[in-house]
Design a protein that fits this description.
This protein is an alpha/beta fold. It folds into two domains: 9-218, 3-Layer(aba) Sandwich (Rossmann fold), CATH 3.40.50; 309-455 and 496-572, Rossmann fold (3-Layer(aba) Sandwich), CATH 3.40.50. Helix content is 29%, strand content 19%. It has 15 helices and 16 strands. The N and C termini lie far apart (75 Å).
Length: 574
């Protein structure tokens, strides 16, 4: 370690199974420094930061300690590690400076835990494309040019970051040097999707590169959606919360599940953008920072996005016997001569939130458009009833429907299972269990943005880690409520996409949304079904977000997709 002006305290901080090496020096506001691929060492740059801040410079776990690698298999695990580290250090909101690879991690931390990060400085961050070679250093940039770059926008939040007066070029230049100046920058590796998420960072941000023409900077003054478009801070530890474990877009179109087509970086549908803007204006907190009760109240409010509930011929509330007691079921009977084909529907909500009422309008629409009797299942929810309670109830409801739905005008021999998100997970699991357990006979699967692999680390999980609506942090919150141990994630009743043999399963329609972390695992499951000889239609929906299927009151594509699903059910169960 280099001799410095600031006394440096080297600490070992235990974060779960990982012993983290942290260098601490200075006094003042806390500042977290995340180093690049060259490793962690104390240098004059950190010394300068320590003159005005209490600097916490952390060695990335797995960088030099091979036994830690298994604990951090990807960038997302590293982001969660730093979030937990801040908890351990007792730091709520900090300034964060990241260089190269550390810049990518810092940006992801700011996007996924915005209340953690008060100011953000990214120095040549990995994850952005650069068309020039960043070979020059910031020290060669004339102060006037730097002022022009960082204050090009008079409303730039950088003025709040840089304490010298904006009309003093030399002072501004020196402040920028103190905050973000490593003399030689590392060439960023190809885009990892960060460039499509940086707009979700709500903290005032300074981006610094070297280039042939001098330093390049970029600010991100926009706020991020809260409670809908982006995740927020780490979950509260209060009781009742769960730990973590333009032009009109075209409507959805079917394509081959074996090679799903997707045009990269397609914009959000304008109607989705307008919806998110309304949610942002409401200023709701990040859902993973809320209690279970608050999340359940939120999804009840969002149910209104489905529009005015349609009339059906009749509805009837009943129960099915289950392993944990009676399971509430609402039967929706459309107009038509019986016995009617039957769809057993499982609502979404991460196995934690949602109920019959949250999906009432959707089930009415499916019944009317498909001509199917729809039996909506109110399975037990976590954390009060953890895995496998929901699975057991879902299967029991399907068995009940096959045997008893005739009492309500349905045909138990023409039976489909379906659901959205966690409900689609349950539908896929029920279809697999019906095969392995010898019944009931399932004729069709309707799987709308299904959760099929708890350990999925596909591109969509990174590209859409911050949402909109469903974020990776919220997914972890749900799984923390649902599962009792990490090992349960390997169980095919949690991760049906990990089942070895999918042959003999019923035909399926798999729907995904472009801006959804679950997009790729849904496409992969459709592909695996086809590879196993199962007829599987894959319907990717460009410009859509997770949850859109229930938003027929505000999204044209939602209504079109419900129509498509209903037509598929009608054909399959004819």
């Amino acid at each position: 370690m280099t001799t410095t002006q600031s006394p440096v305290d080297e600490r070992i901080v235990q974060v779960g199974p990982i012993a983290a090496r942290v260098l601490v020096a200075g006094t003042g506001e806390p500042l977290l420094f995340l180093h690049g691929a060259g490793g962690l060492f104390w240098d004059p740059f950190l010394d300068a930061l320590a003159a005005e801040h209490t600097v916490y410079a952390v060695e990335h776990p797995g960088g030099n300690v091979s036994e830690d690698l298994e604990h951090l298999p990807g960038i997302w695990e590293l982001v969660l590690f730093y979030d937990e580290l801040l908890d351990t250090l007792g730091l709520d909101s900090v300034r964060v400076v990241g260089h190269s690879f550390g810049g990518m991690v810092a940006a992801e931390l700011a996007a996924n835990s915005p209340r953690r990060v008060s100011r953000l400085v990214l120095i040549a961050p990995v994850g952005f494309w650069r068309e020039d070679h960043p070979i020059a250093d910031i020290a060669g940039v004339p102060p006037e040019r730097l002022v022009e770059l960082v204050l090009a926008d008079p409303s730039s939040p950088l003025a709040a970051m840089l304490t010298p007066p904006a009309d003093d070029p030399q002072a501004l230049f020196e402040a920028a040097m103190r905050m973000a100046s490593i003399l030689h920058f590392i060439w960023p590796i190809p885009d990892k999707g960060l460039d499509r998420r940086i707009h979700r960072v709500s903290a005032p941000t300074l981006l610094v590169w070297g280039s042939r023409t001098g330093s390049s900077t970029r600010s991100t003054p926009r706020s991020s959606p809260r409670g809908c478009g982006t995740p927020g801070s780490s979950p509260s530890r209060t009781p009742g919360t769960c730990p973590r474990s333009s032009r009109r877009r075209p409507s959805c179109r079917p394509c081959s599940a074996s090679s799903p087509e997707r045009t990269p970086e397609m914009p959000l549908h304008p109607q989705v953008e307008a919806l998110i803007a309304q949610m942002v204006a409401q200023g709701a907190p990040a859902p993973e920072s809320m209690t279970v009760a608050q999340n359940r109240a939120m999804i009840a409010e969002l149910a209104g996005l489905a529009g005015e509930p349609e009339d059906v011929a009749r509805t009837e509330d009943t129960t099915a016997p289950g392993p944990g007691g009676d399971i509430p079921i609402r039967v929706y009977v459309p107009t038509g001569d019986g016995p009617l084909p039957t769809l057993v529907y499982y609502h979404g909500g991460g196995w934690v939130i949602g109920d019959i009422e949250s999906h009432d309008a959707l089930c009415r629409a499916l019944a009317n458009r498909s001509g199917c009797l729809v039996a909506s299942v109110d399975y037990r929810l976590a954390p009060e009833h953890r895995f496998p309670a929901a699975v057991d109830d879902a299967y029991a409801a399907a068995v009940w429907a096959a045997e008893k739905i005739g009492d309500f005008g349905g045909d138990g021999s023409r039976l489909a299972v379906g659901g959205d998100s966690a409900g689609a997970n349950l539908a896929a699991v029920v279809a697999q269990q019906a095969k392995s357990r010898g019944g009931p006979r399932i004729s069709y699967q309707l799987l709308v943005y299904p959760a099929t692999d708890r350990h999925d680390d596909s591109p969509s999980m990174h590209e859409n880690a911050a949402g909109p609506l469903l974020s990776r942090a919220w997914i972890e919150w749900f799984l923390g409520c649902y599962l009792s141990s990490p090992d349960e994630g390997q169980d095919v009743r949690v991760s049906p996409g990990r089942a070895e043999d999918l042959s003999g399963l019923p035909p399926a329609l798999v729907v995904t949304a472009e801006y959804d972390p679950l997009r790729d695992q849904g496409a992969a499951y459709a592909g695996k079904l086809r590879e196993a000889g199962v007829e599987a239609e894959y319907l990717p929906c460009p410009g859509m977000i997770h949850g859109f299927f229930q938003m027929g009151g505000v999204l044209d594509t939602a209504r079109e997709t419900v129509d498509h699903a209903a037509a598929a059910l009608r054909r399959a169960l004819a």
